[in-house]
Amino acid sequence: MTLARPDVSSAAPIDPVRVAPTLSLDDVLALIRNEIQVLRVPEFISAEACRTISQGLKSTGYSDYLNAPKVGRIGMSYFETGRKPEIIEHYFATALDNLNLLRRACDPYPCPMDTFRCVMDETWGAGCTLQTLYGRKMFVGLSRCMKPGIPLKAHHDMFGRHAPDTPEAASLISQFGINIYVDVPETGGELAMWQDELSDAEFLDQRGDDYAIPLENLPPCNYSAKPENGDLILFNARKLHAVLPGEGIDRLTISGFLGYRGDREPLTVWS
Ligand SMILES: O=C(O)CCC(=O)C(=O)O
Ligand SMILES: [Fe+2]
What is the pLDDT of residue 10? Predict the structure, then answer.
């Protein structure tokens, strides 16, 4: 007896998380075209570099975000400025010093964000440059430290909220998260993502007074990526995402954002 088969399409859906041996133009374009949501490039930096950089970051020392308790960082995120003129001034006044602080922490290895910037510049026809805002250079390469058991709550990243009414934010078509994983726990610490793309107003409403949405308030994530030491991960930062609690050790990363404004425009990076 032959059973009737349901009429299913033969094309398998594309996995939203792609693992690739190198950072290639085709994979960056797949992210831009929304065909994938996460691009993981293992061994972007060597295990030896990770060990040395981890030590350098720890001895440089982390302090908490101005507006996200229990999240440690070296350098400063523009997210911390909260549109306050004196904090914005501090961000720009310390941007180049912070770039050099991160370089010293990574010495004798190159800072992984510098490596990323060069490789991206070589990969993208119009190049990849440091973002400027109000005519001033931004900082990129913030190192984040997540303590064991502490999540980075669910959020999306929108340059436009922090830099409203600027041509730099208005011209952005996509904003991707860049993370290089320097020292990550064996268990936990996944980058979790949800399919939803909330408007910024909806997000601000859901987070209330918190810096982001507690994981308990959300259904389980739709997909996730488990980073290993040395990985580079790029992802669509406009989707809701979070870092799940890790076990045992501090989770150290070097991070920033990648801005896309069209195929013939330079990509830009900032933290
Ligand atoms: O550390 C991660 O895996 C992602 C952190 C994050 O939210 C970001 O880089 O925007
Ligand atoms: Fe984020």
Answer: 63
Q: What is the pLDDT of residues 15-49, one digit of tens each?
A: 999 999 999 999 999 999 999 999 999 999 999 99
Q: pLDDT tens digits, residue range 226-255?
A: 999 999 999 999 999 999 999 999 999 999
What are the structural domain ranges in the chain?
17-270
Question: Tell me, which fold does domain 17-270 have in CATH?
Answer: Jelly Rolls (2.60.120)
Q: How far is the CA of 144 from the centre of ligand 2 (A)?
A: 11
Structure token pair of residue 134: 């109000």
Query: What is the 241 CA–ligand 2 centroid distance (Å)?
Result: 6
Interhelix angle 85-106/47-60, nearest 10 degrees: 130
What's the rounded Cα separation, in Å, for the pair 245 and 151?
4
Interhelix angle 112-123/85-106, nearest 10 degrees:
100
The answer to whether 261 and 130 are in contact (CB under 8 A) is no
pTM score of the predicted model: 0.95
Residues with CB under 6 A from ligand 1: 152, 157, 177, 179, 191, 237, 241, 243, 253, 255
